[in-house]
Amino acid sequence: MRPMNNYRKDPEANNLVAAYEEQFRSGEAAFFEEKAYLKIIEFYERDNQLDKALEVADNAIAHHNFTADFYNRKAELLIGLGKEEDALRVLELARLYAPLEPEIDLLWAEAIAGLGRTTEALALLDRMKETADEELLSQIYVTESIAFEIEEEYERMFYALRAAIDLAPDNVVALERLGVCIELSRKYEESIEIHEAILERDAYSAVAWFNLGQAHAYLGEYEEAISAYEFAFVIDEGFEDACRECAGLCFELKQFHKSLKYYFELLETFEADSETYTAIGQCYYYLGKYHAATTFYNRAIQLDPLNDEILFFIGECYMKEESWQTAIHFFEKAIEVEGQREEYYIALGEAYRKTEQMEEAEECFRLAVEANPEENHTWMRLATFFLETGDAENALEISEMGEEEVGSVELMYCRVACLFTLGQRQEACFWLGEALIEDFEIHRLLFKILPELEQDPDVISLISTYTA
Fold first, then answer.
1. Domain spanning 375-468, CATH class
2. What pLDDT, in 10s, does the model give residues 184-235?
3. Distance CA 446, CA 449 (A)
4. Torsion angle, alpha carbons of 145, 150, 156, 161, to 10
5. Superfamily holding 187-253
6. pTM of the full predicted structure?
7. Looking at domain 272-372, what is its CATH homologous superfamily?
């Protein structure tokens, strides 16, 4: 689950971070109070800048070296970076200043579990349970769940997190980890039951709404999922994942206007990124607003200039607007970045056809086959290209080669069209019969390849025979 950096909208946090960063530009060593350091560390952590957060923790320790909280935060960050051995050394120092602090033991257990010493970690946690109050016990179960996840004991992880939430329904970390556990264990039905019960006690738990949305989405209950994501985002405007999942699900359901609403929320609330601009472009593309789509694709490509998919999407927009040469330019740029995507070659071939550059088009369709010879549509496009250009013999050869390579019924229908075009009617009717036996449902593909066959009496008679 993506960290929720509400601090980006917190003036105090922003001012503290600005002041902290200014000291490096000016070369001065600024001194901050303990609470200020903690807030700066949290800002960078929520912003996924763990190395920067670690640097702040080191500076905090240098200025407040008797404060155990900073050692704990540093250890936590090191664990997040997969540096458990370093974390243990920091926790040993923390114990000097707060020998009875249970958070140190929790972090110790998490660190040794990360090093594969899960039995030792679980034994430590069991000892802690003997004297723990409900709040601490809830935290112990969360740490226990980490050890179970490392052991891939997802069932035990699930029940540990349920126990944590039963003891402290407002334990956000437990709820976030439960969302991860549900994905690992596939307990989506149970997830709905658990989170509905949580929401009956606290209707304003954004994480519970998000987890509920994830469960509904997995079970195909899409409208319920959208509603749950919406509640999560309304409750916590900094909940980026809820907004992004909602936008993405609306897109999948072809609710493009609604999807745009949430993607624009992402732009307004969070830092703009290539992914969001691309998604907005996709929405506009499917709404037929190609100029708007191109605008957002261009913003995306500025942030990610070597993204072949975005270059391809821009080319598709220009194809829709019949700007063939511009489309060719972007398809070629996409291929320069990624030369093994057959759809790029097919699109470029289509653009060349539109500009009557037939040799170049043929080469592109051949390259599409080379890029992915296991897909029947690459062979189909090359074969139909030859049919369109009056070269039925080459079309027949490609159809037969493709059919042998991938065993596609579609290519069998393509072979039939080629044989009829060459006047080899008896053989064509034989293969049409074979194709109809193989897959009658797609027989209209034959008429897309060669529309005049829809009026051919032999073809109609043969299809009628298999219909009966």
1. mainly alpha
2. 999 999 999 999 999 999 999 999 999 999 999 999 999 999 999 999 999 9
3. 5
4. 20
5. Tetratricopeptide repeat domain (1.25.40.10)
6. 0.84
7. Tetratricopeptide repeat domain (1.25.40.10)
